[in-house]
Amino acid sequence: MAKKDNIVVGLDIGTTKICAIVGEKTKDGLEIIGIGSHPSKGLRKGVVVNIESTVESIKQAVSEAELMAGCEINRVYCGIAGGHIRAFNSHGVIAIKSREITQADIDRVIEAAQAVVIPPDREVIHVIPQEYIVDDQEGILDPMGMIGIRLEVKVHIVTAAVTSAQNIVKCANKAGLDVADIALQQIASSEAVLNADEREIGVVLVDIGGGTTDIALYHNGSIKFTTVISLGGNQVTGDIAVGLRTPTVEAERLKKQYGCAMTSMVSRDDTIDVTSVGGEKSRTVSRYLLCEIIEPRLEEIFELVKREIIKSGYDSLISSGVVLTGGSAAMEGATDLAEQVFGLPVRRGLPAGITGLVDVVKSPMYATGVGLVRYGSRNLADPRFPTGSENIFGKLTSRMKGWVKEFF
Predict the structure, then answer these.
(1) Which of 288, 304, 326 is the last residue of a domain?
(2) What is the pTM of this model?
(3) How many structural domains is the chain composed of?
(4) How far apart are CA 65 and CA 71, in angstroms?
(5) Among 288, 317, 332, which residue terminates a domain?
(6) CB within 8 A of 325, min separation 6: which ones?
(7) How large is the average pLDDT for residues 176-183?
(8) Predicted local confidence at residue 384, as pLDDT
(9) For residue 383, what pLDDT is reported?
């Protein structure tokens, strides 16, 4: 297969599926030209627990995407999630040497904002500028070329466990891929499903994956808060398996095919066939019973999200409401239940701003994959951007060596 220099590949390594999405940068924007997906069995709650299973799933997904796109894939942008993710806001100040702000000044002030104590077993994944302040003038998004004496910046710093990030890179490497960069999954999803007006007015993105629920809050066009909750769609599937005494695979099928987040939207007369554990003959149960199992678990997830938003202190700034994405967001009644819990407008987030295989990827479950492609396309021509997984892996390895030396 031929190589293409203008392609960007997003690799969403999730708890329930591994998805590779191929995008091509064109003069008209970003065109999706290939997609591959394969069940994921080597992760638990967003963290790799079995290298070989994960590598095999990555190979299968990438092979399928290569076949559809008609090109060879050797470099990807990976998503990262899990309960080990930690994020906080920081502030940096410098004096401007030549009165006119240059790129070197911007780099220096961001570096100053990063001068915080980070445990040696953790790695910085993102340093995202929220706003710049030039001589007490706030709300500046790009200070380049401005005249001033003092430059300040407020940033959002995201860190992850070094080992978890290393394992993601290692899995991709063993599958024959270079990792151009690692991106936090909810930040990637935001790239695909949020628009500029929502980011400006204030919005919360809630990405309900298989093992985790990822949260990102935006206001005034910049990210203010991120966190991860170690609950997701797999907990709903597990409740169904126990409640209806059915295998997990069958529980997942029932959830996708007949699941509804609100019992008030389901008739008590509707019935479904359920396969019993141990190969016994299937039973007929009420669909209402299935929804009675789903509703309280999803409500619990939304309540936990609401609690995190209130703890962030930004709960009064999300005027445009909540955007739900991720596989579980596709369930009937999910947005209605979320509106009931949050007391805010809620919409389902679908990938937007793309061409090509739009109908194929127009689902909440592909938001992270498409977002990784958009994230990568913005950095494709940036000379300061890492050129391969040697950069990422080397950075992670050096911090890991420091950690080992400290304890041994």
Answers:
(1) 288
(2) 0.87
(3) 2
(4) 9
(5) 288
(6) 189, 192, 193, 205, 206, 207, 208, 348, 349, 350, 364, 367
(7) 92
(8) 46
(9) 44
